[in-house]
Amino acid sequence: MTKAILIERTGGPEVLQWKETPVGDLGEGQVRVRQTAIGLNYIDTYQRSGLYPVPLPGGIGLEAAGVVDAVGPGVGNFKVGDRVAYAGGPAGSYAEQRVMPAAPLVKLPDNISDQQAAAMMLKGMTVQYLIRRTYPVKAGETVLFHAAAGGVGLIACQWLKALGATVIGTVSSEEKAALAQANGCTHTIVYRKENFANRVRELTGGAGVPVVYDSVGKDTWEDSLSCLQPMGLMVSFGNTSGPVAPVNIGQLAAKGSLFVTRPALATYTAKPQDLQATARDLFEILSGGHVKAKVSQTYALKDAAQAHYDLEGSKTVGSTILLP
């Protein structure tokens, strides 16, 4: 038996229950992981609310780090004692211990701690595919990144700066603006004080940007499109303010033959070689010191409900982990 956060129905943070549950038997291609740190991500709230369905009753969460303490049949690339991390399904990372497929796991280098890994695996690999594959950002380009002081945003600002890009970031407060700037964001826009589309046009001399990275969704959709250059790319990779309404595709032509994509990490890391390459790129940028994985908040795993209240209430900055 182990203890885990489980849900029996979807809803607000109050549906998260700290319960004892069976760990389960090892099957073909599976390992058992004793988890030491668990990543908190906005996608967890989507699983909890039902926006992204998960099996019920069951667990939520996609990211953690720990140690392999048992190996099932057919697993040749991991052994007991290996330090590992993951940032993908199946859901259920909010647990002290779990049995899961070996396929999503990556081995951790000695210079990456378990807490660092739990704080940045999902967010860091998300940044990797966004800025290296979805739209490969080049030195000298200016990009717009929403929620620049969030967990993904802070990693993105550092990485984009290392690439030689100019980053315009939106934030909700002056405090978060200072944090984003300290992590490589060139220009910050406090969206509660000024219209970010107008400011982006000012900062770019009316030209706009070639790409917008938007995890906010409904509230920023229209103005984000207005920030783009002709034939620019709108990368909508989240919806913290709610899902984007149905789109009139003709609007993309009217605003300059724009492109739109709704990417997901699971697609970009579906092939084992892509997962390992993505993680390797992340570990290299961390090892070089260009990106620092900082844990900004920690909560006990049993207090996951409070962590969700704080995350959805914009009371957190950067990366947050849950400790079993």
From TrEMBL:
GO terms for cellular component: cytosol. Keywords: NADP, Oxidoreductase. Residues 11-322 form the Enoyl reductase (ER) domain. CDD domains: QOR2 (cd05286). It comes from the Bacteria. It holds the Pfam family ADH_zinc_N. Gene3D superfamilies: Medium-chain alcohol dehydrogenases, catalytic domain, NAD(P)-binding Rossmann-like Domain. One of its GO terms (molecular function) is quinone reductase (NADPH) activity. This is Quinone oxidoreductase. The lineage of its organism: Bacteria, Pseudomonadati, Pseudomonadota, Alphaproteobacteria, Hyphomicrobiales.
